[in-house]
Amino acid sequence: MSVLLFVSAPVEVVQSTTETSAQDSEDGVGVAIDNEGGIREQLAKIGGNLPPVMYVLIQEFITWLTGKPYWGQQPLLKVGRIYQLIAALLSLFSGITASFIILQSSPFFFPLLIFSWAYTVGGARKIQATICHRCVHYEFFGDYRDKWLAEVLSTMLIVQDFAGYYHDHIKLHHHVKKFASFEHDPDAQFLYLLGFRPGSES
Ligand SMILES: [Zn+2]
């Protein structure tokens, strides 16, 4: 197995050992496998001949665009859970507000609805798939407030409530004997339905 080290700009791939390291065990073996030649690692070479500041900014943009950092890339800003919650709510409500303003204006501006819808859907999706997800794991605040936050947010979006999501996600999906099994894991079944197959290359 190869362990990949990305030092500084431009990206470097170093095959150093065949042993499983402590980092591998922590991340899960497989994370470090097959990263050599990965699409994101290929993109990490873009801007390698530019000044470091330019390289970092270009790579930040690519990470933002693709949603995937290259192996070893560190975030420019470390933000917390409250930031994520506020950002999601802002995206949702600013999208709704912008849509309302656009609809009140001339039809000439209606194509701009694509952008306001994107912010609305993006905010709603972030709330449901990220914030509510952490809440059913009791990992947002880490106490009873997670249940109430999930109840408020799920009611606002008219999606599955805390109890239902908790049952489907914690009792079924993450159950130690059911996780990623096609018989019992509704998330795995849904991913399969969407066309994602085990062992696919991309
Ligand atoms: Zn989960």
Describe this entry's structure for a reader.
With 202 residues, the protein is mostly helical. Helix content is 53%, strand content 0%. It has eight helices and no strands. It has helices spanning 22-27, 39-43, 52-66, 81-104, 113-136, 145-157, 162-173, 186-193. Helix 4 runs antiparallel to helix 5 (113-136) and helix 5 (113-136) runs antiparallel to helix 6. Zinc ion (ZN) is lined by residues 133, 137, 169, 174.
What tags apply to this protein structure?
binds zinc ion; 8 helices; 202 residues; mainly alpha
* Rg: 21 Å
- The averaged pLDDT comes out at 82
Shape field: globular
Number of helices: 8
Largest sheet: none
Topology:
Layout lengths: L21 H6 L11 H5 L8 H15 L14 H24 L8 H24 L8 H13 L4 H12 L12 H8 L9
Bound molecules: zinc ion.
The site of zinc ion has 4 residues, from loops.
Question: Care to give the gist of this entry?
Answer:
This protein is mostly helical. Helix content is 53%, strand content 0%.
